[in-house]
Amino acid sequence: MLTVTSRSTLAEMKAQQNKGLLARHPWHFALLVFALVYGWSFMKLEVDPIMFLKGFPQMGGLLRRMWPPDWAYIPAMIGPLAETAQMALLGTTFGGILAVPTVLMAARNVNSNRGIYLAARTVMNFIRTMPDILLAALFVPVLGVGPLAGAAALTLFSFGIICKLSSESIEAIDPGPLEAMDAVGSGKLSQIAFAVVPQILPQFTAHVLYVLEINVRVAGILGMVGAGGIGMWLNTSMALFQYRKAAAIILMFFVSVMLIDYASRKLRERLI
Questions:
Q1: What's the rounded Cα separation, in Å, for the pair 164 and 129?
Q2: I need a surface site. Which of 3, 139, 145, 266 has the fewest CB within 10 A?
Q3: pTM score, two decimals?
Q4: Is-cis flag, bond preceding 68, omega within 30?
Q5: pLDDT tens, 238-251?
Q6: Taking phi first (over 0 means left), then psi (-120 to 50 degrees means alpha), and beta for anything else, what does residue 144 get?
């Protein structure tokens, strides 16, 4: 009996020592895990720092071929640039409109039906996991090459982001107005209209403006897969080695994105 008790006591003491070691040095274990993960990733991807160093002179040569930009090419790009902005605007607008009912169904404090809640969350998460470039590649064969495919891809892309951000904002609202209206017997639509919407509207608008900023950049990339906009022209210029024209397109797009970002940020600051 004494031997069994001693063995169990020793085992317990050893377990406590092991547990104490992990508790005393959590960062050491975390750093070890990160080092193993990064080391495995470097080996699996065959990352070679020497290759990066050798590539820098080639990047310098490319930049020299792109300078000076072909400024005379800029007027011809006003139309494609406007098309890119229109794709971003329409995609954000339609994505925001489609997100409204899904956002309400994906918030626990508004929708008490677990089945509908899980369905809304599943749709939202599924669409949100699909990259924008993949959405455009799927829509181009269906809708054809051009801005329509880009606008459709941005609509779904915007839908996923707006749903995610806004549903979390709704779940964080003050529950007092909802509880008060529920106590007096108000219907669900009345609760949404008078207790949820006034609290969430500024955040929802800010989220839509934030997604618009993202979509302006994304719209310029979608042209690479034939979804219209200035990206198609940039892709063509690079493919034909017209680097000075490509530089003009990049600078023009950069200035436009900066202006849109500034205007959107000022609007969001006023809303929040």
A1: 11
A2: 3
A3: 0.71
A4: yes
A5: 777 777 888 888 88
A6: left
